[in-house]
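#structure-requests
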Amino acid sequence: MSGTQYRDVLYANYHTNQSGRASLTDAKSLFEREKKQFEREVLPKLSGFEKTARIFDLGCGSGSLLMALKQAGYSQVSGMDLSEEQVKMAHSMGVMEVVLGDAMQYLRDTSEGFDVITGMDIIEHFTKDELVELLQLIQSKLNTGGVAIFRTPNMDAPVASAFALGDFTHENYLNASSAEQVMLSCGFQEVAVLPSTMRVNGIVKEIIRRIAYDWLELILKIQLFATARSTRKVLFTPNLIIVARKK
């Protein structure tokens, strides 16, 4: 039995058995929710790029980020995913720029350069060796001044296992410090690791959530202080947003 066989099994119907199952909602509602989240988390990081920037989204799933980019006016977007089910879903949502394929192999083979390469909830699916190769590939395919933007579970978050271990296909786990370490080691010259956006529906619920999170964050910082650890590069949000630039 090969070491990668589980991927063939689990990725074949990834939406049905994981992303759609975990969302507790229908595919269209999930697509719209993801799109709004990307509008908050990713689009502001592209403020310095022209609308003609060449953008590639690896492991793009249903294409919700690509739709957010298109609606924001970006005209040269493309994406690739291993799951045939996800690609069909993307096409049903009107995101025809999504194609079926192995994005890592595509980056090995292509001679094209990109201004932006994104990977939402994807880098945790690679082994450490695979991730280092992938990041080096991405860095080599970025044009000068280009950026790679990733979202990945944060191991310093409270109850981090709910996010990191909630998907059997996850292979590696990062916090802000290790995320910066691996990006710099793979050739990116400027790396920012940022907190992800958190929000719940309903004004009252959101106010309660913010108050509860502020108290929780204070308690966690006190715990670090008590163990003589600095909180300077520690984030507590469920996900990390990593922006890595090639100068």
